Amino acid sequence: MNIVLYTQRVEIVKSYGERRDCADQNIARFLMACGFIPVPVPNIKELALNMLKALNPIGIVFTGGNSLEKYGGDAPERDETERTMLRYAIEHGIPVYGFCRGMQIILDYFDCELSEVNGHVAVRHEIKGAMGTMDVNSFHNQGCLQSTTAIEVLAKTSDGVIEAAAVKGQKIMTTMWHPEREVPFKKQDIEFVQRLFSEE
Questions:
Q1: Potential cystine with 8: which of 13, 21, 96, 188 (Cβ 3.0-4.6 Å)?
Q2: Alpha carbon distances (Å) from 177 to 53, 88, 128, 169
């Protein structure tokens, strides 16, 4: 089965004393449009590891939502879960795609620093680079302006924010835009993820 695991944001519901995992239903719809069986992962690192071993996914998606704890976020369990999954993916050669916060956790894992950026929330903008020129959505307050040697930059905005990148020597790709928020889903986003998670 072409199972793809995807992570979820943490929502804190103080009135119930609960920390809830949740994700936009369009993430699952997007992965279905790519031809995969989407399976959400709770923010419990031990369970995430067990799911990776038991389900043998063809890919992993790190999704948007929640800032990293080191940049003011309040979901350390998500940081731990995604770092555990990323480490396992690297060790076992599982392809990974991260978007928005998913890109940030991957860049942080490879020692790239994030900065506060302006004008990148609920807008569309043009990006340029090895991926060509594209018009993409944007929903982030933090971005990366300078990469480490482990990262290949694929696209930037005019103000220097890295919008797409790959990890050298790994099947790990990242974008700052949300493919699930395009209506309809963009063919280029679907093909991008399909190529990454292909068996080739």
A1: 21
A2: 29, 25, 13, 23
What residues are paired with 42 via a beta bridge? none
Strand blocks (E) in 32-141? 37-41, 59-62, 96-99, 114-116, 121-129, 134-139
Written as six digits, the tokens of 194 are: 């399909």
The confidence score (pLDDT) of residue 200 equals 53
Between CA 88 and CA 103 the distance in angstroms is 17
SS3 state at 147 = coil
Residue 44 per-residue DSSP state: -
Please check whether residue 45 is in contact with residue 10, taking contact to mean a CB–CB distance below 8 angstroms.
no
Residue 10's pLDDT is what? 98
Distance separating alpha carbons of residues 200 and 198, to the nearest angstrom:
5
Torsional sign, CA 116, 100, 131, 183: negative
Confidence at residue 141, expressed as pLDDT on a 0 to 100 scale: 87
pTM: 0.96
Distance separating alpha carbons of residues 200 and 195, to the nearest angstrom: 8
pLDDT of amino acid 121: 83
